[in-house]
Structure formats: C-alpha cells, structure tokens
Amino acid sequence: MPHAQFPMPNSQAVDIINARVPGYQDLQMLLVNQEGIIEQILPMGTVWKRVPPTDLEILDVGGDWISLGGLDLQINGALGLAFPDLSAQNCHLLAKISQFLWDVGVDGYLPTLVTTSVENIQRSLAVIADFISTPKTGSQILGVHLEGPFLNYQKRGAHPAEYLLPLTIDEVKRVLGDYADVVKVITLAPELDPTGEVIPYLRSLGITVSLGHSQATEAQAKHAFALGATMVTHAFNAMPSLHHREPGLLGAAITHPGVMCGFIADGQHITPTMLQILLCATKGLFLVSDALSPLGLPDGFYPWDSREIEVNNGTARLPDGTLSGTTLPLLVGVQNLLKWGICDVESAIALATDAPRQAIGLPGIAINQKANLLRWHWDETTKELNWMRL
C-alpha cells in the first residue's frame, strides 16, 4: 500500500467524505476545487453548496485518515548522493531524489549539509539555490538545513573534527556567503558563543536556530531559547542525557512551550521506551528521518565523506561503531510508533506531517492549501498503518 496510487480526477472538483483529519474531531469532508486546492474542511453532515455549482467526484474514504504529505527537516542525502557532495556534475540527481521522496510520501524537505569544509558548503548551497530557482515536480526543497559546522567537539558524533568552526558572527557570515536566503535551519551548540550575538543575528536573517551536538547546560539552553532558538536537533542524540540534578539541553527544551524537538524513530537512535517518555513529556515534537545517502539503496558498505559507513537493516554506522544515521524513509517512523504501541494513529501521522510544518512556521492541513494528500488506513486486526497518495 505505501506506493499505491488512488488518483483524484484531474481538473475536476472532488469531495472527500468520511475522512479523519489530524487536529479535527469526528469525521470530516474535504472540498477540493478544480485547481487542486482545499476549499473547505467541514464536519460530515454540514450542508454545503458550491457557488457556482460544479461537476464533482465523491471520494468516500470510509473513516481512513487524510493528511498532507510528510515534511523531512533533516535528511542528509539519498540514492547514493550526500548533499554536501553536490556539484555541477551530479546536480541532476536532485530531481531524481525529489521524485523518490515524493514516491515515499514526502511533500517537502530540507537537504541537510553536515559538517564539511566551507568550500563544500558553498558549492552545495550554490547548486541547491540554482535547483530551487525554477519550479520542479516531486518533493519540494524548502531550503537547506546546516547541521554544523558550529558544533561542540565533545558531541560531534560522526561529524569530522577538522571542519568544526568557532561560533562567531564572522565565521557564520563566511559559511553562509551569498546564500543566507537559502538556509532555513541551522544546528549549533549555543555554549560556543559566550557573547550571545549569533542566535539573534541568525534570526534576523530569517533562519530557524536549532540546538544540537551540544554540551549546553539547562541554563545555557534556556538562555539560547530566550535569544530566539526554537528547535532541538535529534532529541537525546549528541547531547547530555537527562539527569535528575542537571536536566541539560533536552530538559530545558521539553519544559519550554515555544521549542520543538526533532526525533528519529528507527529504534536505534532512541529506544521505544525513551521515546514513550518523550512523547508523554511534551507535545513539541516532530519526526525526522536523518537519512543518509544510501536511502533508497540496499544494505552494504558506502562512502561517506572520506570515510566508509556500513548500512545494516536501515542503520548506518562508522567502522568504530559510531551511529551516523539511518536509511529509512520518514514515514517508516510513523509506522514504527504504531508498531511499538507508544502513540495513537492521529498523533503518529501528525508528527510527520503537521508538526514539522509547525516547526518552521508553515501551517498544517487547512483550507487554501494545495491538496497533496495522503490516505492512511489503520488495520485494527493486524495493527498496521499503511498509506497511499490521493
């Protein structure tokens, strides 16, 4: 079912009835106009007449869930291409990756550039800026996520130490170059900037600041949130553990109403039990894939910057065992949450569709949006959640 299609008629209005919609109570009907825009979301039984009257199709989804497609705010590559390796020679792969992501249920994504040289970052930003300058089909690039190079050495994880940089406005300007308007999110370690100047500067550029790969204390994290940071990158990973006398970065984020935390639901980065604790502790969560370049390829050994990773059952590790990411599509995380029994269907769907949009200031499913919709079917007997594009 994940790759099945149930196409709606082209250039014809459609009423989708008996639908469950995340964030709405009871059954709804979604009215989609001839231009493919959601015109209304109304409770079933509401009397509605289109003005002017329009020929339309009725699609009865029989209580299935309807949502927007997924949004992946942290994805490092796919189909063998790591985004930091983008160049004029391989830029054609971006179109293939965008189509692949569309096929696995992702409407939009932030190509994520992990720590590398300033030259590599600049080259990749230039390629992505050129790619998004004209309309494309498939999943849409909404901007870039810079995961580094302003990270704490002690929490660098798989990021190469030789390319880490001090967190100053001058260094930020050097990394961004002429492409600040392409960068949507940047992950940084706030304790590296004792002046407190960098976060307000990034916010003035319209860049969302996410804290991660950090040793920040609770006090340092709270200060960063007060300065304008609003996200946390892959909660639990590359940060101090929660402790009853030092809650740290994650504790500060969980208790701050304006902060949202990304998390990976592959069963390796965080155990299901700890995920359940996180889900109980806060509503400010969204799913990410953190997928690496072998996404869409079979398990095996693959190059990763100047090193090599081994992919086994969707988990990627360096030769020394360091966890470096996954090769599982975003919506597998939704299915995992249900498989582990730690989340209800509505919440699981919203964590990959509405919540990431909220994290970067976009609306969830609502009127006046393009009806790029997924239909989700929950099988009560098998306890499986499957999806198809409408």
- How many domains? 2
| Oligomeric assembly | single chain
What fraction of residues sit in β-strands? 25-35%
On the 0 to 100 scale, the average pLDDT is 93
CATH class of the largest domain: Alpha Beta
* CATH fold field value of the largest domain: TIM Barrel
Q: Could you tell me the radius of gyration in angstroms?
A: 21 Å
Largest sheet: 9 strands, parallel
Structural class from helices and strands? alpha/beta
CATH superfamily membership of the largest domain, which one? Metal-dependent hydrolases
Which overall shape is indicated by the principal axes computed on the Cα atoms? globular
Overall CATH architecture of the largest domain: Alpha-Beta Barrel
Number of DSSP helical runs: 10
Using DSSP, what is the number of strands?
22
Helix content: 10-25%
Distance between the termini: 12 Å
Low-confidence runs of at least 5 consecutive residues: 1-7
Structure report:
Strands 6, 9, 10, 11, 12, 13, 14, 15 and 16 form a nine-stranded parallel sheet that branches. A four-stranded mixed sheet has the order 3-2-1-4, with no helix packed on it. The radius of gyration is 21 Å and the shape is globular. β2 and β3 form a beta hairpin. The longest helix has 14 residues. The chain has 390 residues and is α/β, with parallel strands linked by helices. The chain contains ten helices and 22 strands. The N terminus is likely disordered. The chain starts with 12 loop residues before the first strand and ends with a strand. The protein has two domains: 80 residues, Urease, subunit C, domain 1; 290 residues, Metal-dependent hydrolases (TIM Barrel).
